[in-house]
Amino acid sequence: MAKKAVVLLSGGLDSTTTLAEARVAGFEPYALTILYGQRHAVERDAARRVAQALGVAKHVEFSIDLRAFGGSALTADIEVPKDRPLETLAHGIPITYVPARNTVFLSLALGWAETLGAFDLFLGVNCLDYSGYPDCRPEYLHAFESLANLATRAGVEGAGRFRIHAPLLTLTKEQIILRAVELGVDLGLTHSCYDPSPDGRACGRCDACTLRLAAFARLGRADPAPYINNP
């Protein structure tokens, strides 16, 4: 019988590829999508499409409104940065950083995993992310894994050892795209934009779009996701 795993699924390129990696590794995936008060429902819709297309044992959508704290362009009335030069994106922590988001998300995933009898948690952080976001770095993931085994009944009673899987951690965006294609993922189902149009098309100008489009361009491929100006 396949081991259960909880996969954090936003519906973006990285989390979708991570879900595919969990499946190919032989896990039975349980997808968790966190609705945290972000600007739009497009991510939720993408996550639903992906979960259905790739197949999961169960898909849970969990709501927690981080707008109560704000502090990010994704959860407060702060303008999303646009048209930033590609070479500047890896410097500093951007205003799209949501305070403690991955800690909140992983804690929720850990709670669900413990009720499922699962000891494997998957999330789609990668080397481009941890250059700017502190909660996407290897040392953070190792620390949370230690916490998971100290802070749960399953961990302290020795029922198993929790593991945090970040299969994309050392991959570039180009490598992630190629891996997704290799795994048969339909990237047209995914959504990465921070500030999409009301009908769900990506802006093509925010940091997430810039990184994604640049990676597709370097590969000489067209991004199948819908954009406002169809770049």
Sum up the structure in keywords.
alpha/beta; Rossmann fold; 231 residues; globular; 5 strands; 8 helices; five-stranded parallel β-sheet
What does this structure look like?
- 37% of the residues lie in helices and 11% in strands.
- The chain is an alpha/beta fold.
- A 5-stranded parallel beta sheet has the order 3-2-1-4-5, sandwiched between helices.
- Helix 1 crosses helix 7.
- The longest helix is centred in the middle third of the chain and has 16 residues, at 101-116.
- It is globular.
- The relative contact order is 0.18.
What's this model, at a glance?
This protein has helices at 13-24, 42-54, 101-116, 127-130, 138-150, 153-156, 173-182, 207-219, and strands spanning 4-8, 28-35, 58-63, 120-122, 163-165.
